[in-house]
Design goal:
By secondary structure, the chain is of the alpha+beta class. It has one helix and nine strands.
Length: 109
């Protein structure tokens, strides 16, 4: 019975890592608080003189990071995607064995 639970826990953790596409980068005790306010994306910056606003920019929403034993809000920002038609998949706090684990965001095709 103990061995079955151990393997089940390992399999669950492996599935979460595969779904996230990356290894977790932070462990936290409690759940992250809700965002400090509804964060709406501001108008995108202008890519170049004469270019339409928003060309080549992708909004990455704000997230809570675990730093020095507490959650710290990091606001969203616009970034350039690493390749054409890249889609940003936001990171997420996931419960693993009673602790919150941060799975970072990543780019996908």
């Amino acid at each position: 019975m103990k061995r079955s639970l151990k393997y089940l826990a390992l399999a669950g953790a492996a599935i979460l890592l595969l779904l996230a596409g990356q290894a977790p980068s932070a462990l936290a005790q409690g759940a992250p608080p809700p965002p400090p306010q509804a964060e709406a994306a501001p108008p995108p910056p202008v890519a170049a003189p004469g270019a339409a606003p928003g060309a080549y920019w992708v909004w990455q929403p704000g997230v809570y990071q675990w730093r020095h034993g507490r959650y710290v809000w990091v606001p969203g920002r616009y970034v350039h995607p690493p390749y054409a038609q890249a889609v940003w998949v936001p990171g997420a706090w996931v419960v693993v064995r009673g602790r919150y684990v941060w799975h970072p965001g990543h780019w996908r095709r």
